[in-house]
Amino acid sequence: MILLDTHVWLWWLLDEGPLTDEERKTLDESAAEREIAISAATVWETEMLARKGVIDLKPSFKKWMELATKPQVCTVIPIDKDVILAQEKLPSNFPDDPADRLIVATALLNEFPLATKDDRLQNLGF
Questions:
Q1: Residue 10, class by beta-carbon neighbours within 10 Å (0-12 exposed, 13-18 middle, 19+ buried)?
Q2: What's the rounded Cα separation, in Å, for the pair 126 and 101?
Q3: Please, are residues 64 and 119 in contact by the beta-carbon 8 Å criterion?
Q4: Residue 118 scores a pLDDT above 70
Q5: Cα 108 from Cα 90, distance rounded (Å)
Q6: What phi and psi, each to the nearest 5 degrees, are found at residue 13?
Q7: What distance in Å separates the CA atoms of residue 116 and residue 6, rounded to the nearest whole number?
Q8: 32 and 10 Cβ atoms separated by less than 8 Å
Q9: pLDDT of 86 higher than 80
Q10: What is the pLDDT of residue 126?
């Protein structure tokens, strides 16, 4: 299983962003094997992006999300007390962004590699 950061998930599903053809192919193959996961924080972050007009999800946020979170696309990992407590594993210099903290804590707790293009997270070793 691999956990996708919000931007990677959106770029993949919306066919946007700087993902290479090879990365897209890997994500497609991983989805076919039901090996893609996202944090519930990604759903929350996506709703905020849609509400602010940063992304336009058709026909509506609710319908798009129903399709984008079907089991053949990804598994949504809930935010529970274990995820909250897993934030203790984050380094002291970890960014304060709540979504990033929850997403990385989810990856750490579940021992999933994190697919991200966020330089800040990559520089911290995630």
A1: buried
A2: 11
A3: no
A4: yes
A5: 9
A6: -75, -35
A7: 8
A8: no
A9: yes
A10: 64
Q: What is the dihedral of CA 50, 18, 16, 110, to 10 degrees?
A: -60
What does the block give as tokens for 47? Answer: 């709703």
Q: At 103, which amino acid appears?
A: I
Token look-up 């924080």 returns 41
User: What's the predicted TM-score (pTM) here?
Assistant: 0.94
Alpha helices in 1-80 (DSSP H): 6-14, 21-32, 40-51, 61-68
Q: In angstroms, rounded to a whole number, what is the distance separating the alpha carbons of residues 35 and 74? A: 7
Q: Compute the mean pLDDT over every residue in the chain, rounded to the nearest whole number.
A: 95
Residues 24-81 pLDDT 10s? 999 999 999 999 999 999 999 999 999 999 999 999 999 999 999 999 999 999 999 9
- Count CB neighbours of 98 within 10 A: 12
- Residue 67 corresponds to which amino acid? L
Percentage above 70 pLDDT, the chain:
99
